[in-house]
Structure formats: structure tokens, C-alpha cells
Specification:
Layout lengths: L2 H8 L3 H10 L3 H23 L11 E5 L6 H12 L9 H7 L6 E9 L3 E8 L4 E5 L2 E5 L17 E3 L12 H11 L3 H4 L2 E7 L3 E6 L4 E5 L4 H13 L8 E3 L7 E3 L16 E3 L6 E3 L12 H8 L34
Parallel strand pairs: 1-3, 4-6, 6-7, 9-10
Antiparallel strand pairs: 2-3, 4-5, 7-8, 8-9, 10-11, 12-13
């Protein structure tokens, strides 16, 4: 086979190869393929323009689950009304979203057709993360700052101070939205213990716990990692009594406010007394055990003997001889003159 023939075969495009393959088919097989293609087109057109919106598959039964707010009845009615204009083969998700757009508590809809006449809609609601306070107004808000009017709050939630007006659908105060995000990122068990979340100029966002330390978050970022670090620290028995936990670097949380560790004083060697670690009181004991074995006995005694000023001077009945100031300090040995 010549090189020109090989090069020609390599230059054949896929379209030409397909055309050659079709030309090689028998006329009978060609007719069958054409008939099959026409049938597929007819079925597709029938589905698109007739069966898809036919009453044969119209939605007649709508089941709505997951609604718990005070607007539950109205949310169900809105979803059911919108779904009755659909079929199980043609579910208009945008129409369902528009039907519940006026209810801020609805976060997302999960729709599952039940052929031929059923439609199951599960409502995912926003969960209250905090109570936003602005003057005398108190409303629950979600972690992203969505205002949840009409939502029943169960249990205790942290408070968030709002500067100015609350807003209609979302909190207008940017700082309050960050505080709500910190509260919303907390695990449910810890969220019930948060008293409030506020922002300080030096520490950023700080969550104050009931009967617990302050949690310093800094910026309202990496909240999942920071709350995970907070949970680990709070579960550690050695961290009990801390006044704050710094979570600004979640991989290395810092604990502050713990009592400092003190060194237990050691009684002088040879005194027969020892101090108790709890009270520091001196009790009789073998104090020699407190002296390192590596030190000689005389060295340990010299280092642990109290200073001379701490002992009372001995009183002698015979008065001491006066010292000659001319010979004292001469270095050659002082002599006393009677």
C-alpha cells in the first residue's frame, strides 16, 4: 500500500465516513431506519405538545410536608393552588417558588412528582438563629439575616442588637447580620447556651455563654471550624474555669483566665517540717526527701538553711569584748583587747 493511499485514508473526515457507511446499506434497511426516525419524531412531538400537558397526567393530589410556622395553612394553600395547574410530566418549579415568595420562612422546596396524578412537595424552612432587638421590636432571624416574622421560637435563642430599623425581609444592619451568622453557625446544643452575640472593636464578634466563657470569633468567617474548635475546648475538663476562648485561629484556640500554677514551697532541710501542697501549712515530716539526692548533705543544708536575720540572736551573760577599729578589717585577723 502506497504512502499516498495511507495519507488519503487518514484525511477522511467522520462525516464522509458516515455517508459512505449509509450508502453501503441496503435499500430495505434504509427504509426501516427512516421509518424509525419518523416514528421517534412523532412521539417526541406528541409528548411535547399534547401528553406533557394533557389531563391524563394532571396533578390532582398535592401533599405538602415540612411546614411548621404560623403561616403553615397559607403556605400549603399557595403550593396546592399553583400545583393544580401542572401535570406530573410538566412541573413548573419557578411557579411554585413564586407561590411561596411572600413567606420568608420558606427557604427551599423539594418537589417529587408521583405519576400519574400526585405531587409531593417538601418545604425546607429557615431555622431561627437569634432574636434581633431594635428598641421595643423583637423578631427571630435566620443565620443569613432573614427576618422570620410569624415563626414560633422554641427554646432559648441568643440576642442580637440592631442599630436603626430592622428591615422588612432582611436585617439592614450589617453588623447585626454578622452576629446572626455567628449565632446561626453554632451547634444546636451550644446555641441554647449563648446569651448574646455582639461585636467589639478589639475582639470582633464575641458570643457570651450562660455559665461559661466568652467565645471570641474575630471576623464572621470560617464559622464551622471555629465552632468545632469551641466545642472541643468546652468539652475539655482542663479548660473549666476559663473566662474566654480565643477562636480567631481555629486550629490553635487560646484559653484564658485559668488559675496560674504555683510551686509548692519546700521546708528547710533538717528542720523535720514539710509543707502541705493544699494549704501551705508546715507539718512534721521527713524534709530530707525534698532535697535532691545529687547534692551533698552540707551543700543542701547550706542552701536551705534560713538566713541569719530570720533567727533570734543568742544572748550571752558575758559582754563581748570591744573591737579595735584600727585592726578590724585589716585582713590579718582581728584581735580583741580587754
Amino acid at each position: 500500500m502506497s504512502a499516498a493511499t495511507v495519507a488519503g485514508r487518514r484525511r477522511v473526515s467522520p462525516r464522509r465516513a458516515a455517508a459512505r457507511a449509509v450508502r453501503r446499506l441496503s435499500p430495505r434497511l434504509k427504509r426501516r431506519l427512516i421509518a424509525l426516525a419518523v416514528a421517534c419524531l412523532a412521539l417526541a412531538a406528541g409528548y411535547q405538545f399534547w401528553l406533557r400537558d394533557s389531563s391524563l397526567v394532571a396533578v390532582e393530589h398535592v401533599e405538602v410536608t415540612g411546614v411548621t410556622s404560623s403561616d403553615a395553612a397559607r403556605v400549603r394553600a399557595a403550593i396546592t393552588s399553583a400545583a393544580r395547574d401542572m401535570t406530573t410530566l410538566h412541573v413548573d418549579r419557578e411557579a411554585l417558588d413564586r407561590a411561596v415568595a411572600g413567606y420568608p420562612v420558606v427557604r427551599q422546596l423539594e418537589v417529587a412528582p408521583d405519576f400519574p396524578h400526585g405531587l409531593n412537595v417538601h418545604v425546607i424552612e429557615y431555622q431561627p438563629a437569634a432574636i434581633a432587638e431594635s428598641g421595643s421590636s423583637h423578631v427571630p432571624v435566620a443565620g443569613d439575616g432573614t427576618i422570620l416574622r410569624g415563626v414560633v421560637v422554641k427554646g432559648s435563642l441568643p440576642t442580637v442588637e440592631v442599630e436603626g430599623a430592622l428591615g422588612t425581609e432582611f436585617l439592614l444592619d450589617r453588623t447585626a447580620r454578622g452576629a446572626a451568622a455567628v449565632a446561626g453557625g453554632a451547634p444546636a446544643v451550644l446555641r441554647a447556651r449563648i446569651e448574646n452575640v455582639q461585636r467589639r472593636s478589639a475582639d470582633g464578634y464575641v458570643a457570651e455563654l450562660r455559665d461559661g466563657p466568652e467565645l471570641i470569633f474575630g471576623a464572621a468567617t470560617r464559622l464551622r471550624a471555629k465552632w468545632a474548635a469551641a466545642a472541643r475546648v468546652l468539652a475539655d475538663l482542663e479548660a473549666r474555669g476559663a473566662t474566654y476562648v480565643d477562636l480567631r485561629i481555629p486550629s490553635r484556640p487560646a484559653v484564658g483566665g485559668l488559675a496560674a500554677t504555683t510551686v509548692t514551697p519546700v521546708a528547710p532541710a533538717g528542720s523535720g517540717l514539710a509543707t502541705t501542697p493544699e494549704t501551705g501549712a508546715v507539718t512534721p515530716d521527713s524534709a530530707q526527701s525534698a532535697v535532691p539526692n545529687s547534692l551533698p548533705t552540707d551543700t543542701a543544708t547550706a542552701e536551705t538553711t534560713p538566713p541569719a536575720e530570720a533567727t533570734a540572736p543568742s544572748v550571752s551573760e558575758t559582754p563581748a569584748a570591744p573591737v579595735d577599729p584600727l585592726t578590724a578589717g585589716s585582713g590579718g585577723g582581728a584581735t580583741a583587747t580587754p
